[in-house]
Design goal:
By secondary structure, this protein is of the alpha+beta class. It contains 10 helices and 10 strands. The termini are far apart.
Length: 303
């Protein structure tokens, strides 16, 4: 097994792939102190273990990786080993550049990817919201890494197209597996309760269907169907119901004005809030508040 380390700007093999900052196959036969201290990632990093046992710290959490395990490190996350060195063993790693400041919403991966814009948005949310950076026994990823090695090093006819296809395949494989892994230990009702809890904590955020689907590790189509079957509402209508229920709680507090309630529960304006509230309850927010806040006398006692 011939090891290699290809780096953007230094390795001619990567000239056609500016989005690949590093691709390597490393066989580590000895311990070198300070060879794997914690560092901040500026790209998406994938590590696939072939042989050995690796004890790493990702975002201050300890993980142990065994053969066929894959680690995912996102931009802005910390990766290193508590011992400060790379364990003995063999692994692939792949670093992919993304531009978080690019204004195009579908440019998470870049123009090289053939993933549709809608699916790319969902894949991005699944990766960003994922709280399990290590996927166990993902042997299919090993096949992708070996195929990438062959295409990049041999550079036969059509290799540039094939390399980008394999990168898409890797992202699809990983996000699908994260979805299965997230849902394997819980049924949808439990997942749904967790989703609602998350939404209620940040109702001022303008949640999209893609974001909500990513929170539970589903594609938008499957998510739409499950929410509709579970609640009888579309995801956005269900979200509006949550916003209104939280608004009702706040309207019972005389110290909070209507405009603040509107913004806090995610409505664009007090007018938007008032129109939606009346449509769903039959009252304007002011009418509801007038009918539901107890009157008090001069001594502060309820009348």
């Amino acid at each position: 097994m011939n090891q290699f380390i290809l780096q953007q700007g230094q390795s001619k093999e990567l000239q056609l792939f500016p989005h690949i900052t590093e691709f390597a196959l490393k066989r580590n036969n000895s311990i070198t102190l300070n060879s794997f201290n914690a560092s901040l990632s500026d790209c998406i990093r994938f590590y696939y273990v072939i042989e050995g046992k690796f004890e790493w710290v990702i975002q201050q959490q300890q993980y142990v990786l065994f053969p066929s395990d894959l680690a995912i490190v996102l931009p802005g996350q910390m990766l290193g080993a508590e011992k400060g060195f790379l364990d003995i063993g063999t692994l692939f790693w792949l670093h992919i550049r993304i531009d978080p400041n690019d204004p195009r919403t579908n440019s998470f991966l870049g123009d090289w990817s053939q993933v549709s814009p809608g699916e790319m948005i969902t894949m991005k949310k699944i990766l960003v919201l994922n709280n399990m950076p290590v996927i166990s026994k993902l042997k299919e990823a090993g096949s992708v890494f070996y195929n990438l090695q062959n295409e990049i090093l041999k550079q036969e006819l059509g290799f540039s197209t094939r390399v980008n296809q394999l990168l898409d395949e890797l992202f699809i494989l990983i996000t699908r597996q994260l979805t299965r892994q997230n849902n394997s230990h819980r049924d949808f009702p439990q997942t749904f309760l967790k989703l609602e809890e998350t939404l209620r904590k940040n109702l001022s955020h303008q949640w999209t269907v893609e974001e909500m689907a990513a929170l539970v590790g589903l594609g938008t189509t499957a998510f739409n169907e499950k929410v509709k079957n579970f609640t009888g509402f579309s995801p956005l209508n269900y979200l509006i119901n949550i916003r209104i229920s939280e608004a009702i709680k706040l309207l019972k507090r005389p110290d909070v004005n209507v405009t603040s309630i509107a913004l806090e529960t995610g409505f664009y304006s007090s007018q938007h809030f008032s129109t939606t509230f009346k449509k769903l309850t039959g009252y304007t927010p002011s009418q509801f508040r007038k009918n539901n806040i107890p009157k008090t006398n001069d001594n502060g006692h309820k009348i």
